[in-house]
Amino acid sequence: MDLKKVSRQHLEMDRFFTGGFTIKGRQSSPDRAGDDKDAEEVIRQLEDIAQQVRQCHKCELASTRTNAVPGQGNPQARIFFIGEAPGADEDAQGQPFVGRAGQLLDKIITAMGLRRQDVYIGNILKCRPPDNRDPRPEEVISCLPYLQQQIELINPEIIVALGAHAARTLLETNKPIGQLRGRFQQYYPGLGKAAIKLMATYHPAYLLRSYSHENRARVWEDMKKVLTELSLPVPDH
Ligand code: URA
Questions:
Q1: Taking all residues of the chain, what is their mean pLDDT, rounded to a whole number?
Q2: What is the pLDDT of residue 190?
Q3: 12 CA distance to ligand 1 centroid (A)?
Q4: What is the pLDDT of residue 211?
Q5: How do strand 196-201 and strand 185-187 relate by DSSP bridges?
Q6: Strands, E, within 79-173: which ranges?
Q7: pLDDT class for 21, splitting at 50, 70, 90?
Q8: Residue 126 Cα, ligand 1 centroid: separation in angstroms?
Q9: Is 213 inside any structural domain?
């Protein structure tokens, strides 16, 4: 591996996602909080779910985790970022996206003119699979109800599915991420509930592994669509 090239690419990516952007305005709407529930009730119920997650023993991952990672962010978020599962750093700290992929996600959020505290961040699985192996179907089945309840409570306007696993799980499809990203899809929260727009994009860990201008530009194109859909300013690059 050409280390110099890799570090130059990472520096370039850093600059792209952080360079020259100011945080413009408050990005979440104070009047929104999961349907008609008031914000305090949403916070209370989210904490309730977090407690259930921390005590959960529905699958084998409970025996290998250090900390469960329920999710984090603004209970009134307009955007809910959803990844696959906690990694080693997240397992150690009990918070989502705090390792290298998380640092890149932070840069993407900053490039969008937002702050981490404006959005909500969670995962399909709340516990780390050993050695970061792929989630197993029975684990997803056990864990998904927590995420479904979080989505219902937060009621985001847009879900951003980070990577193939999150996108396929939420959209109930096996299509490759290349076919799912780039245009809005519909996430169906359940019978009688309105669909939520979902933008799938590449996982930050994939961007770190497979750095290319094209992949970076694709993620930025996807995020610009999210901002436009929310009538938020789109920072130039
Ligand atoms: N990758 C994920 O999908 N989620 C995290 O929380 C961290 C890394």
A1: 89
A2: 87
A3: 22
A4: 84
A5: antiparallel
A6: 79-83, 120-123, 158-162
A7: very low
A8: 10
A9: yes
Here the tokens at position 119 are 């959005």
pTM, whole model, 2 decimals? 0.88
- Closest to 223 (Cα-Cα) out of 184, 193, 192: 184
Say which CATH number the domain at 81 has: 3.40.470.10
Distance 161 CA to ligand 1 centre (A): 11
Residue 83 reports pLDDT greater than 60: yes
Q: Distance between CA 147 and CA 124 in Å, rounded?
A: 7
Give the residue, out of 53, 65, 72, 90, with the most ligand 1 atoms within 8 A of its beta carbon, to mutate for a pocket test: 90
> Cβ < 6 Å from ligand 1: which residues?
83-87, 90, 96-97, 99, 101-102, 123, 205
In a domain, residue 218? The reply is yes
135 in Cβ contact with 84 (< 8 Å): yes
